[in-house]
Amino acid sequence: MSVIGQHKRNLALVPYHEEWPTLFQEAAEQLRAALGPKALAIEHIGSTSIPGMKAKPIIDMMIAVSSLSEALSLVPIIETLGYTYKPYDTIPARIYFSKESAPEWRTHHLNLAVPGSDFWQNQLAFRDYLRSHSDLAAKYIELKERIAADHLRTGELDLEAKTPFVTKVLELARIQGVKIQETSAP
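Above: the chain's sequence. Below: its structure in token form.
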């Protein structure tokens, strides 16, 4: 059984896999080789980037680009690597792709964003704060498990259920002046 991949309409959480950082590195190396210096940095984000975190087994990544308009020129290159561009994204501060190993079986999410943008900063601050605060990471696991159980029971997904928790973590990170650790410069 693969350690990554999940049907796009499924919300099953799995225990943390030690292989996730390696799978991120492999994908990042492939993206770096294809994009060259246009990829200013590549970061592992989301729950698979937090040791010990239960997660949907999908590798979330973020590439720093000089501008979103320049990033649009990278779409054809990224698509040759098997990623599908999602032009109707609801988050205007990023360009979003997914990668599937079979129809509707997602293995990767890829975001292109400008470093210094709120989207970029928030993704890294949230990741770094949970990496260094295991008590809050445990509470986040509990919240995600409740959301997954509700989804299983009702078939509905509350897209805003994590928002208060995420907002609290980002406020704590700002108050404590968390230094964002960019980990994957090309």
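The chain has a mean pLDDT of 92.
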